[in-house]
Amino acid sequence: MKISFCAIVKNEGANLRRCLASVKPYVDELVVVDTGSTDDTVEIAREFGAKLGYFEWCDDFAAARNYALSLVTFDWVLVLDADEELVVFEDYFRESLIDCNLLGYTLQRREASQPDGMTPLHTLRLFRNLPELRFEQRFHEDLRYENKLLRADKIGFLESLRILHYGYETAEVRFQKSLNRNIPILERIRAEEGLSLMLLYCLAGMYADTQQPLKAMECYQEAFDRLFLNLLEGNPPEDFRFVPSLLVNLAVHFLQENNFEDPQFLLQRGLEWCPNFPPLNYLAGVTHRGLGLTEEAIAFFENCIKIGRENCYYTGEPFDGGYMTIYPAYDMACVFRELGQLEEARKAFELALSFDENFGPARDALEKLNQIIEENDTV
Q1: Shared domain check, 190 and 310
Q2: Residue 352, number of CB atoms within 10 A of its CB
Q3: Which of 150, 165, 189, 280 has the largest count of CB atoms under 10 Å?
Q4: Would residue 340 be called left, alpha or beta, if left means φ above 0 and alpha means ψ between -120 and 50 degrees?
Q5: Strands 121-128 and 133-136, how do they pair?
Q6: Quick one: 222 and 361 in the same domain?
Q7: Residue range(s) defining the domain that contains residue 145
Q8: By the 8 A CB rule, do 79 and 163 touch?
Q9: By CB neighbour count within 10 A (0-12 exposed, 13-18 middle, 19+ buried), where does 246 fall?
Q10: Residues 155 and 20 in one domain
């Protein structure tokens, strides 16, 4: 099985050499399509012997990627961005591609600056070179088969290949990319043809990240309105991958206003659709605690920890791993303390510290709790 690598690039002189060096030993062809670079990006691609293509940028990532696909030669295609690096744990991964009935494989992708905090994104990056497989959507482009989302039984997972992403190494870089590139593209798409629910959710997050809370709230409200019928009827949207995260964000907005009633509906439906997404379970615990339903709250917090221990969490969207460890353990300890179950509270605080011994709130709370328990024992 021969593999073509393909990427679309623009002014990636700071990143492209690292990317191409990481993939060159494992592929049979490098295809790089430039969309208007003014730095040394094209020269670096030539240095690695890449087949070069040129695409006039038109605010359409799918169109650029599909043009790049038209230039590849071999049976399988590996797609990375210039600010990503391929990490290979077993170089005989090609054996997985022989005589399989799959259309593609997802790979784990982590942020290089936060390798341990967030769970990895599972992203479809290695797939067959078929004319029926093409990208759609101008931003956050998706690979489709005959214009439809790929069925889960046609996608495998390769543990031996992983991706490191360097594009958001600092919060300032993320801020500037959102403000100067991504938000203007999404606003143009919104004005010209409207946004999908997923892109509306993305725009809301970018507005929030760039301190534009009113615009973020407007997008979240529109997303909730468009999702309401699905929530009411119990039918998840066809493109479900991002929906658990969207429900989490909507619930957080309610909870920040000390509104514990409205999140119940969101979280109940979210857990029916995706019971193994820890942030949904955690927020359900927070909501039930706010409503005074302490036993139910404890059960949700315990389930978060159980999901983490069994490593059976939903991989469609990355999330803070603390939702399977520190946060539910700490909140559960606080509930036990409020109920006067001091020994149970101590065990839960100790559990939180077993996940992170430097977690200050748990450390301080445990110290005070131990003093109370010692005083009670003395009396």
Answers
A1: no
A2: 27
A3: 280
A4: left
A5: unpaired
A6: no
A7: 3-165
A8: no
A9: buried
A10: yes
Structure tokens at 220: 């979240």
Is there a single domain that holds both residue 96 and residue 204?
no
Helices marked H in the chain — which ranges? Answer: 16-23, 41-47, 61-69, 171-177, 183-192, 197-209, 213-233, 243-255, 262-273, 278-290, 294-310, 326-338, 342-355, 360-378
Indicate the residue type of 58.
C
Q: First and final CA of the chain: distance in angstroms?
A: 76
Instruction: Say if strands 3-9 and 29-34 run parallel, antiparallel, or are unpaired.
Output: parallel
**Is the pLDDT assigned to residue 379 strictly greater than 70?**
no
* Alpha carbons 195 and 188: distance in angstroms, whole number: 10
Specify the DSSP class assigned to residue 141.
Answer: -
Same domain, 51 and 149: yes
Under 8 Å between Cβ of 288 and 332? no
Place of tokens 């019971």: 275
Residue pair 137/200 in contact by the 8 Å Cβ criterion: no
**Residues 191 and 78 grouped into a single domain:** no
pLDDT at residue number 179:
86
149 shares its domain with 14 = yes
Nearest to 278 by CA among 235, 326, 238: 326
pLDDT digits 0-9 by tens, 18-38 = 999 999 999 999 999 999 999
User: Does residue 269 share a domain with residue 341?
Assistant: yes
Alpha-carbon distance of 68 to 53, in angstroms, equals 7
Q: Please state the φ and ψ torsions of residue 76, each to the nearest 5 degrees.
A: -125, 155
> For 236-281, what is each residue's pLDDT tens digit?
998 899 999 999 999 998 888 888 888 888 999 999 999 999 999 9
pTM: 0.89
Question: Minimal CA–CA distance to 254: which of 221, 285, 227, 231?
Answer: 221
Rounded CA gap, 255 and 35, in Å? 43
